């Protein structure tokens, strides 16, 4: 009979876990789909993944190709919908070339291609008759997209573009799927016609033959080599690519934003040029949604293990203390649990925001694009940085055993951490938010209304002067008080930065000089967005016994922990007094006590299978020690009692020592 070592913990829960699972999934339908697909993947031996770290790169990669092909076969056999297929990809839990095909190549054609181009290329891509990648970054430039060097020169004689890599630094470098698999790519290059330059645009370029998969003439392509961590992101073929005067037909430039005529004239359509960057906005919003997946996974492991693990505190020979009962453990773990829920909520809101802007764009309303760019960039940065740091904190929360591969945490960290860099370096993205905020502040007096997530700045006069109303610790549970403190902090920091900027004769010079402060302003604004979206969510009717109450506690933990961590901002801008800061901390401690009995149930609500977690420490049944012990013996190093190489290298040293001792 299987014993549930965490049964006691589960019996303490003060809320309906099944209802919380639905809140986490987003809807009853989403929960049912997710649950069904998770079980399907977990029960299929073809999706086994616990041996990945022991494979060499070639074997690992071949294994990924096999899994991707098998996944595609199952998707077709079972006629999975797009939602189901994307859940399948999530639970298969292995980065692959297919991510870039579906996640960037297809969206780039949809977002930047004309109707005609979509009709030609999308059916091929949807049936995977071609496999695409997104090749923007080069050896010399990633963040600075306008600095890309690859050229696309129009040749009016043949009605073609000549794609060329003029320098070593213009080699495409990093694109996922490019290294070994992609047949095509959306390639970003500087458009040149009639001797004039017209900025960076996307072009569909065939890279490899559809017959023998060899590179087409003029193309040099390969993988860029092993990346951070064993297994991990090495299932992906990030690639290098060079062009030597490769010709493509004119109609393979993505022409929704700008068109090149037969004569080589560049015509701008009525959509803003920034739509060339549209695929990045789409992926950044996806990454925000995904942050809660990665963080919740780490938190689930650390929470279950913290309830199993005991150290010190035995009274009269009784059980030692569960490490989850130490306030220091709670102070590190519960804010991460709260962040996982907060990012879930903000990810949902981001989906709404993206759907909204897509509909507006279709109706030629581009008014919300700058704000959507700022939100996706800022929240991508905030959530991925917090998640990467959070996964590492969870590893430490699991003590020594967290460092074992079988804890599931090292691989999770290695796969996740590049999210802080790809799709825009997190600092570079925060600087984009800061630019947007400085622009908003500068327009405050001009009659232009601050809208959307910056609407609070419309109350600048009130927010510059308000005094926090907290008299006792419980006051910090009031949403209006928390909101005002966060809004006042973000406004005061923005205004202070704007004032400092105005002291510089040259704005760009000022921006560079003050960039560290500007990043902090952007963080304050993004944290406010998360807090406000969580509070907004709690205005809704949320069914299920105790569910809303748990979410309210988590929302308060999220906000008050940020307040505590960024106390310097709140105090130096005069938003709160030192006494009120101390009361916030008292409230936070009290909230930890309320979260404690519900902690295991709150991570059960993520509904992760043991297959997906792939963590002995995070097992649902908490049966950690026997399984850790059992697993150690499965290591190939334990196949033989005396390891290969011992007699050859170590024994001679021992023998020498013995001889020396006898002399
Ligand atoms: C197992 C197999 C199963 C098979 C299953 C099949 C089914 C599967 C189903 C689904 C699977 C899907 C999986 C999806 C997962 C996706 C995975 C993705 C993995 C990630 C890979 C990573 C890829 C990359 O990294 S791609 C490269 C990204 N590169 C960057 O992000 C570069 C960053 N740099 C920039 O973005 C810009 O250069 C910049 C913004 C920093 C600066 O640009 P600039 O110099 O041109 O601009 P300015 O600063 O001058 O600004 C001008 C102006 O424009 C505004 N602006 C800037 N950017 C944008 C924008 N994006 N949108 C709108 N506006 C923008 C800016 O604010 C300025 O405005 P002003 O008003 O001030 O003028
Ligand atoms: C795993 C992985 C997968 C990727 N997949 C793809 C892909 O499929 N397709 C693709 O095209 N690309 C891909 N990339 C590339 C990725 O998008 C870039 O690496 C990323 O945009 C960062 O650019 P960079 O490497 O040029 O960093 P850099 O800009 O060189 O950053 C280096 C440092 O400089 C700082 N910095 C840069 N500019 C500024 C500034 N203006 N102000 C202050 N500090 C600054 C940064 O903060 C950072 O600390 C991938 C990268 C990785 C790691």
From TrEMBL:
SUPFAM superfamilies: Acyl-CoA dehydrogenase C-terminal domain-like, Acyl-CoA dehydrogenase NM domain-like. Residues 479-655 form the Acyl-CoA oxidase C-terminal domain. The keyword Oxidoreductase applies. Residues 277-438 form the Acyl-CoA oxidase C-alpha1 domain. It comes from Cephalotus follicularis (Albany pitcher plant). Belongs to the acyl-CoA oxidase family. Pfam families: ACOX (PF01756), ACOX_C_alpha1 (PF22924), Acyl-CoA_ox_N (PF14749). GO terms for biological process: fatty acid beta-oxidation using acyl-CoA oxidase; lipid homeostasis; long-chain fatty acid metabolic process. Its cofactor is FAD. It comes from the Eukaryota. It is found in: Peroxisome. This is Acyl-coenzyme A oxidase. Its main location: other. Residues 16-131 form the Acyl-coenzyme A oxidase N-terminal domain. The keyword Lipid metabolism applies. GO terms for molecular function: acyl-CoA oxidase activity; FAD binding; fatty acid binding. FAD binds at residues 137, 176.
């Amino acid at each position: 009979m299987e014993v549930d070592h965490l049964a006691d913990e589960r019996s303490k829960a003060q809320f309906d876990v099944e209802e919380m699972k639905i809140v986490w999934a987003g809807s009853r339908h989403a929960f049912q789909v997710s649950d069904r697909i998770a079980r399907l993947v977990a029960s299929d031996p073809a999706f086994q993944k616990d041996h990945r770290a022991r494979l060499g790169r070639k074997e690992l990669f071949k294994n990924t190709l096999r899994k991707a092909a098998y996944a595609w076969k199952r998707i077709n056999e079972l006629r999975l919908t797009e939602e189901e297929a994307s859940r399948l990809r999530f639970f298969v839990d292995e980065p692959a070339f297919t991510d870039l095909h579906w996640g960037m190549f297809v969206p780039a054609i949809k977002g930047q291609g004309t109707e005609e181009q979509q009709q030609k290329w999308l059916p091929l891509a949807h049936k995977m008759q071609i496999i695409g990648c997104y090749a923007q970054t080069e050896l010399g430039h990633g963040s600075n997209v306008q600095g890309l060097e690859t050229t696309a020169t129009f040749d009016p004689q043949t009605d073609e573009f000549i794609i060329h890599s003029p320098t070593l630094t213009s080699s495409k470098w990093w694109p996922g799927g490019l290294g070994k698999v992609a047949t095509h790519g959306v390639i970003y290059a500087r458009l040149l016609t009639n001797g004039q330059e017209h900025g960076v645009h996307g072009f569909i370029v065939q890279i490899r033959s559809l017959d023998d998969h060899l590179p087409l003439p003029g193309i040099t392509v390969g993988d860029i080599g092993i990346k951070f961590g064993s297994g991990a992101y090495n299932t992906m073929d990030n690639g290098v690519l060079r062009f030597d005067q490769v010709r493509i037909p004119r109609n393979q430039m993505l022409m929704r934003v700008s068109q090149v005529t037969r004569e080589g004239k560049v015509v701008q359509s009525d959509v803003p040029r920034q739509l060339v960057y549209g695929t990045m906005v789409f992926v950044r919003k996806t990454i925000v949604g995904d942050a809660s997946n990665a963080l919740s996974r780490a938190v689930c492991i650390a929470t279950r293990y913290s309830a199993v693990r005991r150290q010190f505190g035995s009274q009269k020979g009784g059980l030692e203390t569960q490490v989850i009962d130490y306030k220091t453990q709670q102070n590190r773990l519960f804010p991460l649990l709260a962040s996982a829920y907060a990012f879930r909520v903000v990810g949902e809101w981001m989906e709404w925001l993206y759907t909204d802007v897509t509909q507006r764009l279709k109706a030629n309303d581009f008014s919300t694009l700058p704000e959507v760019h700022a939100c996706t960039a800022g929240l991508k940065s905030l959530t991925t940085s917090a998640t990467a740091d959070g996964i590492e904190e969870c590893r430490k929360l699991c003590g020594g055993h967290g460092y074992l591969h079988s804890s599931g945490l090292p691989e999770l960290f290695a796969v996740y951490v590049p999210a802080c860099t790809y799709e825009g370096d997190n600092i570079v993205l925060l600087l984009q938010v800061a630019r947007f905020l400085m622009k908003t502040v500068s327009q405050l007096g001009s009659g232009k209304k601050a809208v959307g997530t910056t609407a609070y700045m419309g109350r600048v006069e009130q927010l510059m002067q308000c005094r926090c109303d907290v008299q006792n610790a419980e006051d910090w549970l009031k949403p209006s008080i928390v909101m005002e403190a966060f809004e006042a902090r973000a406004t005061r920091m923005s205004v202070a930065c704007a004032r400092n900027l105005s002291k510089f004769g040259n704005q760009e010079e000022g921006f560079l000089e003050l960039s560290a402060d500007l990043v902090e302003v952007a963080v304050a604004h993004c944290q406010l967005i998360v807090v406000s979206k969580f509070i907004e969510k709690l205005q809704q009717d949320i069914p299920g016994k105790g569910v809303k109450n748990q979410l309210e506690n988590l929302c308060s933990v999220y906000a008050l922990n940020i307040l505590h961590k960024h106390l310097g901002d709140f105090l130096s801008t005069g938003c709160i007094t030192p006494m009120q800061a101390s009361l916030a901390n008292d409230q936070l401690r009290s909230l930890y006590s309320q979260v404690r009995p519900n902690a295991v149930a709150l991570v059960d609500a993520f509904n992760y299978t043991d297959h997906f977690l792939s963590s002995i420490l995070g097992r649902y049944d908490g049966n950690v020690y026997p399984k850790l012990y059992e697993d150690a013996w499965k290591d190939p190093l334990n196949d033989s009692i005396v390891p290969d190489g011992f007699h050859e290298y170590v024994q001679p040293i021992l023998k020498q020592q013995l001889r020396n001792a006898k002399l």
